[in-house]
Amino acid sequence: MLSPEASKTPEYLLDSVDKNDLPRERLRHLGPAALKNEELIAIILRTGLHGEHVLHLAERLLKECGGLAGLARLPFSELTNIKGLGDAKATELQAVFELGRRLLAASPEERPMIKSPADAANLLSEMSVLEQETMRTILLDTKNRVLAMPTVYRGSLHTTVVRVTELFREAVRQNCAGLIIAHNHPSGDPTPSPEDVAVTGEIVKAGKILDIDVLDHLVIGAGAKFVSLKERGLGFG
Questions:
Q1: Cβ(178)–Cβ(144) under 8 Å?
Q2: Residue 20 and residue 14: Cα distance in Å, rounded?
Q3: CA distance 24 to 219
Q4: For the domain 10-106, what is the CATH code?
Q5: CB atoms inside a 10 Å sphere around CB 170
Q6: Which residue, 160, 179, 157, 183, is CA-closest to 170?
Q7: Which is the most buried residue in 108, 132, 163, 214, by most CB within 10 A?
């Protein structure tokens, strides 16, 4: 929290924070794996807005876009419409995300492998802080290695609004062997609702028709809390 004196001077440059707290300094001393997503984004953006520090801008971007995966999926035209992103910043973000995609494509053995519900929940940990209910899928190859993690829906989940064809569209396009569904509960309580169970049943049925194995449905709560509907036998009967 800035002091009243400090708040009188707009701080929007990455260099305006204490040197020891700079994401660049932390990366040099601790390595990139020690940094949060917003810190890595801040390094790419370099500067914020007048009155909005670059770290706050990075945090806002992730919240507004539904996390890192949502930000990575936005087309250039939508990125440039976000307050604080011009053509240059949008171009740099898209270049970084595209390099990441190409690296995964070039080195499939480096892709994360899902061996348990906890593995999947760890990959989606940022969903625990989303303020809006969001559904994502983890698309997997035949060895349960991650192909992609697209966001497929935002809003309260129930069978009348979740379109199964939209949920499987990217899975079919990538010819994936299986998928894991996940959505968050903004309340922080990961207890599955009757609607969650009903949606799961419909998705499992659709997966069988499309020959795509629906391996699990996770409900992400606050912190590290999550529930596996598969482990509880809900919607997978």
A1: yes
A2: 12
A3: 34
A4: 1.10.150
A5: 19
A6: 179
A7: 214
Query: 177 in helix, strand or coil?
Result: coil
- Integer Cα distance of 163 and 158 in angstroms: 10
For residue 197, give both structure tokens.
């169970």
Name the burial class of residue 2, with classes exposed (0-12), middle (13-18) and buried (19+) by CB atoms within 10 angstroms of its CB. Answer: exposed
> In whole angstroms, how far apart are CA 146 and each of 41, 71, 105?
22, 18, 11
**Sign, Cα dihedral of 59, 65, 69, 73:** negative
Which helix (H) or strand (E) element contains residue 69? helix 67-73
> Which SS3 state, helix, strand or coil, does residue 202 take?
helix
From residue 124, give the alpha-carbon distance in Å to each of 26, 36, 70, 144, 224.
23, 13, 12, 16, 10
With H, G, I as helix, E, B as strand and everything else as coil, classify residue 142.
coil
- Mean pLDDT on 145-170: 77
> CB neighbours of 88 closer than 8 A, spacing ≥ 6?
none
pTM above 0.70, yes or no: no
Give domain limits for the chain: 10-106, 111-228
- The string of pLDDT tens digits covering residues 7-51 is 443 444 444 445 556 888 888 888 887 888 889 999 999 998 888
Superfamily name and number for 111-228? Cytidine Deaminase, domain 2 (3.40.140.10)
Which secondary structure element, helix H or strand E, spans residue 94, and what is its range? helix 87-106
H/E segment holding residue 115: none
The encoded tokens of residue 96 equal 């970084």
Neighbours of 204 (CB within 10 A): 19
- Distance separating alpha carbons of residues 180 and 77, to the nearest angstrom: 30
